[in-house]
Design a protein that fits this description.
70 residues; mainly alpha
Amino acid sequence: MARASRCHPKALSRAARDHRSSQSDVDVALQCGLGALHGMSMGHGYEPIAADVQKAQRLAIARSKPNSAD
């Protein structure tokens, strides 16, 4: 759903951050992080700065690792 709809990349980054605490939400967090990166690469929402991209990337990578607590 994160990729299917045109959500603002910052909203998806926040969702990835917010879903980090529960193991059951790992897939949700990962998809939100990847959706944020995709949205940024497509130019949706705003002109991202490097820190925005790095944050979304860090959240997506952290969610893909078991027992991550970023």
